[in-house]
Amino acid sequence: MKTDPKALLWGTIIGVGIVVAGIIIGFDFPHLRMPFTDTQAVIFLVTAILYGLFIAAYRKLWKTPGFWLVLLAFLAVHVTLYSLVVARMAETVQGPQMWALYGVLGGAEAFAFALVVLRFFHRGPDTRSFTRPK
After folding, report:
1. Are residues 90 and 122 in the same domain?
2. What pLDDT is stored for residue 73 in this prediction?
3. 3-class secondary structure per residue, the chain
4. Are residues 93 and 119 in the same domain?
5. Domain count, the chain
6. Measuring CA to CA, which residue among 72, 87, 73 is closest to residue 36?
7. Residues 40 and 14 in one domain
8. Between residues 1 and 102, which one has the greater pLDDT?
9. Is residue 17 domain-shared with residue 75, that is, in the same domain?
10. Which of 98, 107, 81 is nearest to 38 (CA)?
11. Measured between alpha carbons, how far is 63 from 57 in angstroms, rounded to an integer?
12. CB-based contact 126:60 (threshold 8 Å)
């Protein structure tokens, strides 16, 4: 697959701009705090990884609007579940137990998502890009 030189140039400019902005904010405003807690940041990270894997594993369904509706519905359930239940549990549980909780819930959510997509679209996850040797 060939990359368009114009797209590569703009991607490089945008990437360098983001890195420079991050460095400037880090050095000029060292006491700047994010508007969310550490637990919320971890939940955001877990969500980004989980849904990134969902999107990558179902690449063949990208052109199907129903797939995106199912994904958004699961995201709504995920945010509700994590904000109501997991955030409260994370206040009492710390360390490896917290990560185990995120792992178990993420695995259960991935399994449920795979079953729903299989039921509606008759397609399982395509993980060849994750598992084939490089």
Report:
1. yes
2. 93
3. CCCCHHHHHHHHHHHHHHHHHHHHHHHHCCCCCCCCCHHHHHHHHHHHHHHHHHHHHCHHHCCCHHHHHHHHHHHHHHHHHHHHHHHHHHHHCCCHHHHHHHHHHHHHHHHHHHHHHHHHHCCCCCCHHHHCCC
4. yes
5. 2
6. 87
7. no
8. 102
9. no
10. 98
11. 14
12. yes
Residues 57, 71 share a domain:
yes
Range 61-75 average pLDDT:
91
| pLDDT at position 55 over 70 | yes
Q: Can you tell me the distance from the alpha carbon of 124 to that of 10, in angstroms, rounded to the nearest whole number?
A: 35
Q: Dihedral sign for Cα 45, 48, 52, 54, please.
A: positive
Check residue 132 and give its pLDDT: 66
- How buried is 89 (Cβ within 10 angstroms: 0-12 exposed, 13-18 middle, 19+ buried)? middle
Q: What is the mean pLDDT of residues 69-97?
A: 82
**Are 14 and 40 in the same domain?**
no
Is 2 found in the same domain as 48? no
Domain that holds residue 18: 1-32
Indicate whether 65 and 105 sit together in one domain. Answer: yes
Q: pTM for the full model?
A: 0.67
If one compares 39 and 56, the residue with the highest pLDDT of the two is 56
